[in-house]
Amino acid sequence: MDAALITASLELVAERCADPAPAVYRRVFDQSPEMEALFVRDRDGGVRGQMLYQVIETLLDFVGGRHFAVNMIRSEMVNHENLGVPPQVFASFFATVRDALREIGAEGWTPAMDTAWDGLLSALDEAVPRAPA
Ligand code: HEM
């Protein structure tokens, strides 16, 4: 799992797109349409933006010093289950983020970045096992 490549992929996306949140949530709601209703209070997209920001901060901590990422993901998985987000859907968010960022990165997204994200996603699966279906 190469932290420098993960960071480079995020920098590539930041150069090409001021706000990747719409692209990310479009994919989430395409995959799980029932999740859109849960954001009923989020009139201006601020909560979705804040959530994505915190997820990216958590991923950077996970590939870096791992000071808070695992506990944060575990506690958010429980919070979200109480919100009505099944653990499987919750855990799928990381790969959905990768897919949306890769689309934005387009030809600038290298095979090495893909391998780094594959490593990150499988390490996350190991560190924070999903609750059995
Ligand atoms: C498809 C998966 C997910 C769905 C459908 C989802 C849904 C939601 C919803 C509906 C809210 C707003 C709740 C409210 O109005 O109070 C929220 C907030 C939040 N979510 Fe998620 N979530 C997902 C994945 C994640 C993941 C993977 C993380 C972190 C690892 C996360 C972290 C957060 C945080 C930190 C907030 C609070 C944002 C704020 O400060 O306003 N979410 N989520």
Question: What is the strand and helix layout of this fold?
Answer:
Elements: H1 3-16, H2 21-31, H3 46-63, H4 69-83, H5 87-105, H6 111-127
Helix pairs in contact: 1-5, 1-6, 2-5, 3-4, 5-6
The structure holds protoporphyrin IX containing FE.
Q: Architecture in CATH?
A: Orthogonal Bundle
Instruction: Evaluate the radius of gyration.
Output: 14 Å
Instruction: Enumerate how many helices there are, as a single number.
Output: 6
Number of domains: 1
**How many strands?**
0
Uncertain residue segments: none
Q: Say what the CATH topology is.
A: Globin-like
Largest sheet: none
Query: How many angstroms separate the termini?
Result: 27 Å
